Amino acid sequence: MLCIISRVNPKSSFRRFTFYRQNSLANNYIQTAQIQLNENIFGKYNFYNNRLLPSTMAFSSSSGLSSSSSLKKNYENRLANEKSPYLLQHAHNPVNWYPWGEEAIALAKKENKLIFLSIGYSTCHWCHVMEKESFEDEETAKIMNEKFINIKVDREERPEIDKIYMTFIVLINGSGGWPLSIFLTPDLAPVTGGTYFPPTDRWGMPGFKTILHKVALKWETSSDDLKETGLSVIEAIQKSASQRRVDGDTDDNPMTVEEKFRQAIKIYKRAYDPKWGGTNGAPKFPEISKLNFLFHAFVQTKDKEMLKLALITLDKIADGGIHDHVFGGFARYSVDKKWHIPHFEKMLYDQGQLMMSYSNAYKITRDTKYLEIADKIFKYVTKDLYHPAGGFYSGEDADSYPTAESKDKIEGAFYAWDYVEIEQLFKNNQNKFTVQNAFDIYCFHYDIKENGNVEASSDPHGHLLNKNIHFVKKSLAETAEMFGTNSESVASILKTGNEILHEVREKRPRPHLDNKIITGWNGLMLSGISKLACSGDAPNREEYLRVAKKQIEFLRENSFDVNERKLLRACYGEGENISRGSKPIYGFLDDYSFLIKGLIDYYVASLDMTMLYWAKELQELQDEYFWDSRNGGYFYSEASQSDVVVRMKEDHDGAEPAGNSAAAQNLILLGAYFEDQNFKSKAQSLTQFFSNVSPMGYVLPEMLSALTLDDAGLHMLVVVGPDDENTRSFIEIASDYYVPGLISILLIVDKPHEVTRQSVSQFKMVRNLPTAYCCHNKQCALPITDPKLLSEEFASKYLSSRI
């Protein structure tokens, strides 16, 4: 399946763009110019048929992915000197690949050649397919080497490059994904491109070799036209990135925050899949930013329909095959509407965000199953994505060898099961069960079938033929009723069965592990662990805090350049060691904003003031490197990057929240914690820059949450008392509830200078007891000295039963 980012339904009243562009004039110019250009180049071919790939799993490699080890021994290109696992995967292609940099760009200018830019990442299935079909093919490589300067980019290592050119592809095609295949002028202006291309003409698409020949011919005969068009495209994208967003809402008649909120709620209700949760249709992504907004909308409006949308979605995701029931963790997306058959890669950013979402679901409902799911994510990442020094790797591949003797990798091989294999495992381990029908119960609950449970529409090439992907068919209670037992007995059987399967699965060849330790994604994981640690019934709170603290220490030591005062984008795990690479790549907006968010969340869980101060320091550096002092908002990359033709401003919450969305919330919280007017002003300027994005609640749900916090006013809890467990218990009680934007301040009576907000020094203990003050918009309720009363106060406002 294609590693997709977006689809477009032209009949819908909203767009599911990963890069949402508001400058319609620029859009129209780019689309019109590009259509004319591509028709000129490709003639009879429907070049845009590759936009259809994301909507189905119908295109999958017809065979497994060969390692081609004999071929790779004969070649070595410049990628062999890189650290990125993705670039190293291509280091022995016959293609003369260059990493992105001055050498390749200068050569393109010197030889007046087009650049072929291929962008992907190491755990991307279709990147592997295109490598096998085209980049390992010597005939194709010969054309590429003669006609183009060929550059490989790891999108996770250089996301700013990916965002620029993916924006172009989404604008002209209506969708995008990886691998990204694009042709650039020597001045780095885009000419044409797409995503995956087959090696030869098929599916109504030109084959990759056809594309190479036709683009090269067009460059030889009309290079000036291509340069002019490409530069115009860059100018249009730059103009769109710089201007305030003005689509669907005007300065003459601006929508209020409440109107934006209500508009978003209507859209969510209309787009919702009432049976399977999430957004209607397939493929389905968790869309965690939208889940966060739904939780916020429930707290803000008390509309239980919003809570229902979020919880049913989380329930169905947890029941689906997108959830690794055997050991924990979640795949990136499902190819079907039921969340059954996933695209099997597991990404760190999903694990961290889903850990937050399931923790928040518990905080609202007190349903411990959500804590169990979040805890399983924690166990997965600390076992399989963890460097012993404390950082987390970026992800695991979808593809693996079915057996140690296999020569071809198959997507999902690590996770799929034969019925007879499970049956034999249960027979061999019958002594671990207290009932004889444990196997029948296990198969019924997870929909395990003798002929497999994968529908042909989700597996057109038969890679999962007769295989089973665990899928919760019935609830524990329904399964128990079916077999005349109780839920506790069923849960025990499932737990034991999964442990047996996990032990066997660990002996299978593992999917490839990407050893990049990405700063921003580690920030999301830090938030997830911290949110889980704040949950009162969490089973391993001390372990969560220990791992989170070690992670912060790791990031301080390995991901922050003290001399340059900059975060790094990534470092690399090499066994027990850590490498930064010979040419460090410095962090981007989301590396700062996600880590700052993680530090704020960790402070709430630990009350470690040093983390708030580091968050403040990083926020000031973020403002220095990325803030647009002329128009407002944050650029994604620094101004000092000479090899970036456009400084983008990301304006869509996708698989990860936009850096600007996370920054808006960070600024509001830090402004409150430190009474910093500069942070508060920047937050207002930032939300104002994006205020006319429409529909804001669907395109930028995290941004609208920030805008709502600022508009409605923050809640603040000030606890005054001695430095002991009784005093801290008030903060712990409050943090066990879902309260968006809660400012928690601990004022130790004999250490008043350590508080960040000096104005709270007026608060005093009552009757010499630890005392809590609940405030909103600078108005405080009567002081509380009994922790039970505080818990009752929060429970009455923020707890809800399921509906």
From TrEMBL:
Q: Which Gene3D superfamilies match?
A: 1.50.10.10, Glutaredoxin
InterPro entries from the entry?
Answer: 6-hairpin_glycosidase_sf, 6hp_glycosidase-like_sf, Ssp411, Ssp411-like_TRX, Thioredoxin-like_sf
Which residues does the UniProt record annotate as the domain Spermatogenesis-associated protein 20-like TRX? Answer: 76-237
What does the entry give for GO biological process?
carbohydrate metabolic process
The protein here is known as CLUMA_CG011311, isoform A
